[in-house]
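As described in the Methods, two query proteins were run sequentially through the folding procedure within a single session, without resetting any intermediate state between them. The first query and its resulting C-alpha cells are shown here.
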Amino acid sequence: MGKEKFGSAVVSPETSQSPTETASPSRSSVNRRSFLKGGVVAGAATVGAGVLASSIPAFATKRKSSSTLSTGDAAILQFLAAAEALEADFWLQYNELGGIQDSEVSGGSGSPAYAAAISVLDTDMSQYIHDNTEDEFSHRNFLNAYLVSKGAAPVNLDRFRTLPGSQATGASGKLRLTNLMQLTVDTSWWTRYRSRVANPDLGNTFRQAIPTLAAGQHTAIPRTDADLNDPNFLQAIANTAGFHFPTIEQGGNSLYPALAQRVSDVEVLRILLSIGPTETCHFQTWHDKAGNAPPLTAVDPVTGVSVTFPDLNSSPFGGEDFQTNLIMPEPCPFLSRKLPVVSIIRPTETEGIATGVVQFLTAMGLFIGQPPAFFNTMSTLAAAADAAVRGF
C-alpha cells in the first residue's frame, strides 16, 4: 500500500453472509498446491524433530496472556476485524461469480463466462478465489470471537450493508458493504516490489504498472449480463479483478506487521504474526497471476472509460521494474540507507497505518455509495488503532 495504509460500529458479532464451517472435500483433483503442502509439512516435521531432540529448549518459557485486553490491543483487533469484514464482503462477491461454489463458501451460483475470463490468468483461479474468500471469513470470525472471549466488544458493520452488488446471473443479489463496480486501482505495488533502490517507508513513490486502472472508474465484476456480451470487454473486467486482488492483499501484507509493532499482549502479538503471513501468501499468489493478464484495450460500453493492459515485458515497459516473472521482493533499503539492502515486506512503518488504509480503500472507490456514518465509523476505528502504544 505505499505510504498508503487499510480501513464502526462496535457492538455485536457479524452474523450475515458467513460461510459454513463444515469441511468438505470439494477439490476435484490433486493440484500442485497439494503437492507443495505435503512437501513443506514433511520438511517442517523433520526440522522440528531435530530441534526438540536437542538439549536446547525449543522455546523460551511461555509468557502468560492477560485475561483482558488493553485499550490499545482491543482497538487494534477491532480495526482488523472491521478490515477483515470488508475483505470478506468483496471476496464473497468475487466468489459468487468466479469462484468454486460449495458449502464452504455459500452464496451465488457462479457465472461461467466470467469464470472462464478469470481462468485466462490461471486455470486455478476459481479455487484460489474460493480459498481466499474462506480465509477472510475465518479471520473476521476469529478476531470477533477472540474480542468477545476477552470481554471486549466485537465489530459489526451489518447496518452498512446497503450497496447493490452485481445483478448478473450467478450473483446472490444481497446488499453489500463494498462496491466492486467503480474501482480506481493503484498498481504502484508492482514497481515497488521490484525496486532495489526505493522503499515507501523512506519516502519514495513508484510508477503505476497499469496507468489507466489508476484513472477513471472500472468494474471488476459484470454488473449485469450485458457485460458478458463483448468478449474483449469481459476480459478487461477479468484483468481488472486480476490486478485488484493483489492491490488489496498487499495492503494486509503490510498492515499486520505494522500494527504488530503497537500491541502489548504476547497473545495478541501471536495472533497478528499468525494471520499476517496468510495475507502475504495471498499477495504473492495474486501477484503471480496478475502478470498473466493478456494485453488488450477495451472501452466500457456504459461509462465510456477506456482501459489498456500492456505487455509488461515489452517496450516501453520492460526491464526489472515491470518483468512479470519477478514475483519475489527484490532487496531494497530498509531502516537506513547506510545498511545493506534486504528483501522485506514494504511498507511496515507503523505511524498512521490504520488511517492510511482507510484513505487508500476510500480512494480506490471501494466505498462509493456509503453514507457519512460509515466513513465516521471507519475513521474512529482507525484513529483508535493508530493511538495504541505498546504497554498501554
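Immediately afterward, the second query was submitted; its sequence and C-alpha cells are:
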Amino acid sequence: MKYELLAPVGDFRSLRAAVEAGADAVYFGIKGFNMRDAARNFRLRDLKKVKKICGKVKMYLTLNVVVYDWEMGKIEKIIKKAKCYVDSIVCWDFGVIELCRRYNVPFHVSTQASVSNVAAAKFYKKLGAKRIILARELSLKQIKKISKIIDVECFCHGAMCVATSGRCFMSQYVHGLSANRGQCAHLCRRSWKIFDDDGNELKLENSRVMSAKDLCTLPFVEEMKRAGVKSFKIEGRNRSPEYVSVVVGEYRKALDYDESKVGSRKLEEIREGVENLKKVYNRGFSSGFYFGVPTADDFSWSENGEQSERKEFIGKVFKYWPRVGACSVRMNTGRLKVGDEVYLISDSEGIKRAVVKSIELDGKRVGVAKKGQDIGVNFGMKVRSGCEVYLIRSG
C-alpha cells in the first residue's frame, strides 16, 4: 500500500526542501486565510509557480481559519482561482465546505473540526469529504475504527498544542491575537508562576507547565500504518527549510522501510533517524496521544529548543565560476574555515548541506575567512548567486 508523506511549506525555500526531500504532498496557506499567519505564506499569483515546482507532488491549500461573513467573497475568489492548481482544500467551516461543493473542489476536513468518532466521520463523508485530518487527541486504537469509514490523515511529527485540537483563546485574551485566525503568540511556551489571592507564590518544578513536547512517531510508524493511517502529516509551516528537509527525509525513509530488515538493524536505523531529527528545532519528543493520554513527562523544559545543531548566518554568494567549481562569498559576519559544514539556502534552490572544501583570499589559499572579506569558496557543488550561507554549529 502507498502511504502519503505530507510536508508543511510556508515559503518557496521550504517548498523546494520538501519536494527534494521526497514529500508526496505539501500543504500551504494563502496569506490572510490560514492557521499560520506568521509564516511568509503564498499569494494567489504564486500558485502557478508552486505547481511548477511541485510537479507530481500533490498540493493541498489550507483555508481552515475562523471565517466571517465579510470574508466569504474573498474565500470564494480563492477557491475559484485555486481550483485548477490544487488537489484539495483543507477546511472545516461549513461555509467553506459549501463553496468547495459548489465549485466541485475536493476537500479534506481539517483537524480544527476535532473529528474523534465514527459518527462524525460518516457525517463528513456524506458531505463529500475525501479525507479527514483526525483530532490529535486519539489513540491508535480509536483511529483504527475511524479509518475503516474514510481515508484518515494524522500528524506524525511536530509541535503539539496544549489546547484541544489547537482551539486556544489565551493569545486572544492577552494580546488580542486569535490563534484560530493563525495569529497565536505562543503564550503557552513561556515560563509561568502561580499566585493565590493572598499573593503567595507557588514555585513550580517545571515553570513551562503548558509547553508540550513535540510529537515524534518515527519509532512507531509501522503501528500507525496498521491503524489505517493513509497520510502522515508533518507540522511546521513556520519552521525553517532545514527542519523541513531533515524531517521529511527521515520519515520518507521510515515509510519506505524495507520490511526484510529486522531486529537490531531496524532498531539502529530508527535510533539514527531520531538523532537526526534532534539536530533541527524541537522541544523534546513525545508520542502524543497515540498510546494514551500524555503525562507530566510530555511537557517541555526547554526555553529555546533542544536541537543539537543551530545555524548562524555568514554571508551570501555573489558569483559562481563553473569552470573551477568555486564561488565568491561576501562575509557579512562571523568566521568560516575549511572543513566547516554549512547550509546553502535560496528561494530558487531550496536548501543544501555542504562542506567547505577550500578557501581563497586575494588569490591565496587560507584556512580561515573573517567578517568583511570577499573570498572564493569551493563547496563541492554548484551554487547560484544570491544563495545565503549559514554555518552549522553544534548545540
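The mean pLDDT is 90. We note this only descriptively and draw no conclusion about the first query from it.
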